[in-house]
Amino acid sequence: MVRFSTQAGSAKSYNVLMGAAAATAVGSGVSLYYLNKNSAHANMEADGLHPADHPFPQKKLMGTFDHASIRRGFQVFKEVCAACHSMDLVYWRNLVDVAYTEEEVREMAAEYQYTDGPDDSGDMFERPGKLTDPIPRPYANEEAARAANGGALPPDLSLITKARHGGVDYIYALLTGYCDPPAGVEVREGLNYNPYFPGGAIAMAQNIFDGVVEFEDGTPNTASQISKDVVTFLNWAAEPELDERKKIGVKALMLFSTLTAIALWIKRNRWHTLKSRKVVFNSPKNWQQQQQKKN
Q: Which residues is 230 bridged to in the sheet?
């Protein structure tokens, strides 16, 4: 009897290979996580201190933005940060149903004058702001911004949490990290010492203090709370789709989990016969005699 089988003798090798691949993937993930949480630099003074990991709710896997914090953060930006920094990619309409009602946003936009036109006479004119206008700039152009800040250009804050290594943790640490320089460190006139800023010397002075803003909802206006709220607002400005993206991610996980379960069930209950099938050849008893007669 001759037997032919589709069961490969390399099943053990295949399992070993898959196990090694899984171990490599897990080890790589653990290593990357460790390096991300415990990064070190050869020159901490030149690169800046690594910020601590702060518990912002939107950083969690299923966490979302605190929209009350976004509202307070925009108030901090408008009363403190907007004196020097712009947000060219954020429009008044973006705030509707996120932190304010439409009427509230219309009233805030109307407080500012925008140059529009030309009119029927070909002249430009001033008009109150509306929902389709961007958040107003503090300076007309880059040269004016540098002239007002001793040659330093205040960066646009629209994408600042994505443009800096460390994201929200870095911005929060920078806002709350001002201190006197240690012994032996000299900071030239016009600069301020902040160990989280690369090089340690930053042109921006400390602007966040206890009580610098009065929150309308009664939230304690400590420096840490004010910094947390404005960082949350800046994070939303950089990633306004974050909440929706996480919702879609949950739906995608549920969908693909269901499809994976169905695929495994089909493989085990419909295709297992092909994996375990054997082809058996049983020669007839007089097979050799018939072959001799033919010859």
A: none
